[in-house]
Amino acid sequence: MKLDKKNTALIVVDMQNSFCAKGGGCGRVGLPIEKLFKAIEPCCELIACARETGVPIIYTRYVCRADYADAGVIFHELMPDLMEVGALAEGSDDIEIVDALKPAESDYVVDKNRPSAFYATEFEKILKDLGTEQLVVCGVTTNCCVETTVRDASQRDYQTFVVRDAVAEFEDDRHEIALRSMDMLFADVLTLDDVRQAWQ
């Protein structure tokens, strides 16, 4: 696939305080969120490049009801500690995009309560309204919300590109395996410089 800036959108996945700020909810349950901080600056650069070249920007946020009634198996069965510390609860600072990446008024923000941006959200309607054919994806985490969204995008025949130096994971091996898996069948894995060259 050849990346273009026409009919393309930048998808910024879950760059929220819970994952990417000191004291975030995911850190309070013992997850090594510091491993995710390295995605912040590359995401900043991608966002700046998108703004300069007129590429629409869509942020996703992982948000659950304050009572976690909509949080599903992930919270209630697999990681109940997240509820105990109030992680990703609606109305909390934990759900907000980190200060360095705050959305502009012209950007889109899609809230979701599952790893995929496509699940029970307006995400695909926004893509269709924008005439989107290609997605450039950055954010966290590589193996969870990034990969789940990328796989769903591929199955809907979006040409999808993952920016390897603008995604991050709690564990290095899962990060690399996720990139290899996506690059095999679901996306092209590029670098930030590759995207800059294609858009400029």
Biggest sheet statistics: 6 strands, parallel
The pLDDT mean sits at 98
The strand count comes to 6
Distance between the termini: 17 Å
| Residue windows where pLDDT falls under 50 for at least 5 positions | none
Order of helices and strands: EHHHEHHEHEHEHEH
Question: Under the CATH scheme, which architecture would be assigned?
Answer: 3-Layer(aba) Sandwich
The CATH homologous superfamily is named Isochorismatase-like
Q: What's the helical proportion of residues?
A: 25-40%
A few lines on this structure:
The chain is of the alpha/beta class and 200 residues long. The chain has helices at 17-20, 25-28, 40-53, 72-78, 81-84, 123-130, 142-155, 172-185, 192-199, and strands spanning 8-13, 57-62, 108-112, 134-140, 159-168, 188-190.
Task: Describe the protein.
There is one protein chain. The two termini are about 15 Å apart. Strand 5, helix 8 and strand 6 form a beta-alpha-beta unit. Helix 7 runs parallel beside helix 8. The chain is about 40% helix and about 20% strand. The chain has a six-stranded parallel β-sheet, with helices on both faces. It has one domain: Rossmann fold. It is an alpha/beta fold and about 200 residues long.
